[in-house]
Amino acid sequence: MTYADLIALLTKRRSVRYFGTKALEKETLEKILAAGRLSPSIENIQPWHFHVIRNPQLKAQLMETSCYGNFVVGSGVFIVVSCDRATGSKTQNTIWNPCEMEYSCTAAILSMMLAASTMDIGSCWVSLHHGPAHEILKLKENQMIVAGLMLGHMKLGEEEASREHQRGPLEGMMTMYE
What we know:
This protein is an alpha+beta fold. It has helices at residues 3-12, 26-37, 56-63, 99-118, 130-136, and strands at residues 48-53, 66-67, 77-84, 121-128, 143-153.
């Protein structure tokens, strides 16, 4: 892959909130999950767990716990990504900032979003209210919800972005120390 290929992929990737009714194929879903599995993580402890939800009633319940996620129920699949805080004990090295395990999970989410884009699968991440979603999924105490990821075939007419998404200039986002 070239730098130009990467920039093209990053430019193509966008948040999709409207999905068609065609089911997401198991093989496609597994490829997207595999991309998440290959993500970098602190001390390679891979603290993520992917809760794959196809059940419409469960998606509706989780939609009620999401911030700006009123599209969850329309997705083909909703993946809740949790961080297993117990995995920190797998390493002999000290993890100075426990948030690094959560950051590792966000890297997995981005990897899955990019993989979905390569297959023309729509994706959008949403944050969840941790307590209610935790209870709905009956997660163990050491599991912390990081975010949810909607995936699915795009609704007819939604394949292309409605407008170009402008990004701020790099000069306003960085400070160079030489």
